[in-house]
Amino acid sequence: MKKWFMVTVVGKDRPGIVAHISEALYQGGCQLGEASMMRLGGNFTIMLMVEHDTEAKTLSELLEAPADALGLRIHVDEIEGHLHEHLFPDVSVMVHGADRLGIVAQVTHVLAEAGLNILDLESDVAGTEQEPIYIMHVEGVAAKGIETLELALDSLVTEGIEVRLTPIDTMIA
Amino acid sequence: MAVLEILVYPDPRLAHASQSVPAFDKNLHKFIEDLEETMHAGPGGVGIAAPQVDVLQRIVIVDVSGKPKVSSHGRLILINPQIVANGGGLVGREGCMSVPDYTGNVVRAKTIQVVAYDEFGERQEYACEGYEARVIQHEIDHLDGLLFLDRLVSRRRDLFRRKTYA
Questions:
Q1: Among A55, A75, A100, B72, which has the highest number of CB atoms less than 10 A from its own CB?
Q2: Is B18 within the bounds of a domain?
Q3: A70 and A109: one domain?
Q4: Which of A163-167, B68-72, B152-156 has the highest mean pLDDT?
């Protein structure tokens, strides 16, 4: 019986990793689903849904050769997920400020309390080493409405973090 | 009145260009009724084009009047539409009844000038902006065999980061 697995691959970034990993999975008879790759601090990271009629151990073995050759660490979990279960965000939140401890915790705590379900998050540290700045982009569903989020965020802006909410009005035509 | 079947990507018929409507007759009016009912049958549908229901004719219906805070011309029947002028560019999130379970960012002109015929064959001209302009551009793409998938830009980033700092 076919099952879905979440395969996580992490290692030092270099060209060709996606090609090698996907080739090994293809040769092993795996179907790929949704995936997200990002380069974080010079590291290659990817999470991908893989469907196969095997056990997690077999899937790990399938990826052993490319992992060894490219110096990658592989982690495989059997998951309950399915395809075609997308949720669509109705709000985008851009955050930026001088980098300091606790920005993510403060912002996401306030947003969660005000009903935000985060669907997508990416963040970066930019600026210079002496004066790093933090930038975060979140998309999600505002379960209690966007005005509730706006009200909740008012307190944060005074603490030196700029937060901008933009409604995502998806056009279906 | 009838709800028509919507073609779904990768159906190759969605890539065909549509023909101009030659006659503004009863058959056309009947078809427009069905097309409009089909548009409203799906959740949140604000536009539809004839080729989405396998009729290769240059007919579009747009109605964004149900959206709060959006300026619009109400219900628009656009036959043989042409965009004769456009200005600006905006990134916005789009989905499509012919592409279930996916939405993505597309750049569209912010303002457009549209010349089209109504269902009675009268020439009309509309100046549209923002959301309504986006819907019309999305629908006219259908008449030319294009989907928003053909125009996707990054969903992760609205703008590309600069590589160097001057």
A1: B72
A2: yes
A3: no
A4: A163-167
